[in-house]
Design goal:
This protein is of the alpha+beta class. 31% of the residues lie in helices and 14% in strands. The protein has 5 helices and 5 strands. It has a 5-stranded mixed beta sheet, with helices on both faces. Helix 2 packs antiparallel against helix 5 and helix 3 crosses helix 5. The longest helix has 19 residues.
């Protein structure tokens, strides 16, 4: 009788992905991207594969609260980290404010890039609230007041997410509205 196959080898590793509040033990090839682990191993197909080169942002998810293009992030590098996908943003039947704003203001057209746009927008709002400057922030001194999250700031901060349908005007409106709602809810 042949020995039982090993669950890991020199080209694979056992990892535990913490996705949307649930732990998922997996054995993955070292070359498996986080995107492929989410879609192919866990069946979480909300995260989309666009360019598969980190240039379009369709695969954006949150890793430890920071946006990450999951097509360039190896699954083994996500071992034990907190991952939030589009499926994990809602609170039961209650959509996240960014999801609701995208829905209400038509911040999507075909919808393919929308999960990545929404995950990125959630991070943008959190980064701005934490006082992180962007490339268009005029005064980056630590003692300066944070810039307003205006259209120029939103466009710059969301520039890593492409929409081939060009829903950008509605996306900026949705992020603006969600940021206002989140700020008011936490005040």
């Amino acid at each position: 009788m042949a020995p039982a196959p090993s669950t890991t080898s020199s080209t694979s590793s056992a990892v535990t992905l913490h996705v949307n509040g649930e732990k998922h033990p997996l054995t993955v090839d070292h070359r498996t991207t986080l995107l492929d682990a989410l879609r192919e191993h866990l069946g979480l197909t909300g995260t989309k594969k666009g360019c598969d080169q980190g240039q379009c942002g369709a695969c954006t998810v949150l890793v430890d609260g920071r946006r990450t293009v999951s097509c360039l992030h190896l699954a083994v590098a996500a071992d034990g980290r907190e991952i939030t996908t589009i499926e994990g943003l809602a609170d039961g039947d209650r959509l996240h404010p960014v999801q609701q704003a995208f829905l209400d203001l038509d911040g999507y057209q075909c919808g393919y890039c929308t999960p990545g746009q929404i995950c990125s927008a959630v991070a943008v709002i959190e980064e701005h609230a934490a006082g992180w400057p962007s490339a268009v922030t005029t005064d980056v001194r630590p003692e300066a007041d944070p810039p307003s999250l205006n259209a120029e700031e939103i466009r710059e901060r969301m520039s890593g997410n492409l929409c081939r349908c060009t829903a950008y005007v509605a996306i900026v409106e949705a992020v603006t509205r969600a940021a206002t709602e989140i700020k008011e809810a936490t005040a």
